[in-house]
């Protein structure tokens, strides 16, 4: 009898451990989600800011009171998340540097998932030209505005790393505009003599940004340019 009870106890424990192992496997991430955010009209990637840029907000359905989670875009407008779970999701794209999107339903399958978000950016920065001369960085560009909200500010950011932007910068110049963009060439000048973290003999990344006056808008950017000083 004692021997039988011992065997039963061992089987119960084995069943518990097996159940735990199965549960852990069931709830381990089993999907990845990658893709990009592109301009609906031009097809170009919509440049982002890693720390202060647009985010992909998502809700995993099928749970009671599921939390809103988020993932970030890389500077170039691509994204990659390898720790997703397969299932049904709501994806929300309403706080970025583009006109807010309608919430979408997305079926995340096991394994690799890819998606391209197509948006209309608040501001397109075009015809960029960044040069160093006479101790100054001169950035020239044009803007295309897609909404009625004014352009709040234009900026030039500098940093040794290509991730340069509003939050990642060692030097910046910002001009407050608060006006509608015109079909003219804009110019921002950065005198490097005014910044102790920038010096000649080194190379830095410079990036032009423009901020819309729309609610909760993030900076629109041109690609970063490496310049030898």
Automatic annotation (TrEMBL):
Pfam families: DUF3823, DUF3823_C
InterPro entries with a match to the protein in the record: DUF3823_C, DUF3823_N
Chain ranges of the DUF3823 domain: 32-119, 124-226
Protein name stated in the entry: DUF3823 domain-containing protein
Annotated organism of origin: Dysgonomonas mossii
Organism lineage string: Bacteria, Pseudomonadati, Bacteroidota, Bacteroidia, Bacteroidales
């Amino acid at each position: 009898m004692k021997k039988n009870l011992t065997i039963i106890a061992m089987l119960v424990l084995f069943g518990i451990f097996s159940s735990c192992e199965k549960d852990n496997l069931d709830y381990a991430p089993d999907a990845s989600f990658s893709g990009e955010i592109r301009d609906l009209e031009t097809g170009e990637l919509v440049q982002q800011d890693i720390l202060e840029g647009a985010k992909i907000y998502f809700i995993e359905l099928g749970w009671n009171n599921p939390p809103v989670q988020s993932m970030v875009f890389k500077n170039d407008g691509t994204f990659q998340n390898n720790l997703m779970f397969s299932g049904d999701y709501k994806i929300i794209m309403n706080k970025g540097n583009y006109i807010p999107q309608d919430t979408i339903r997305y079926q995340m399958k096991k394994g690799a998932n890819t998606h391209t978000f197509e948006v209309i950016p608040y501001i397109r920065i075009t015809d960029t030209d960044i040069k160093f001369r006479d101790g100054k960085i001169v950035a020239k560009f044009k803007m295309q505005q897609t909404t009625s909200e004014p352009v709040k500010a234009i900026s030039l950011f500098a940093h040794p790393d290509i991730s340069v932007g509003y939050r990642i910068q060692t030097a910046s110049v910002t001009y407050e505009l608060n006006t509608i963009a015109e079909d003219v060439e804009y110019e921002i000048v950065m005198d490097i003599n005014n910044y102790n973290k920038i010096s000649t003999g080194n190379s830095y990344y410079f990036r032009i940004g423009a901020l819309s006056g729309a609610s909760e808008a993030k900076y629109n950017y041109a690609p970063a340019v490496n310049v030898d000083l």
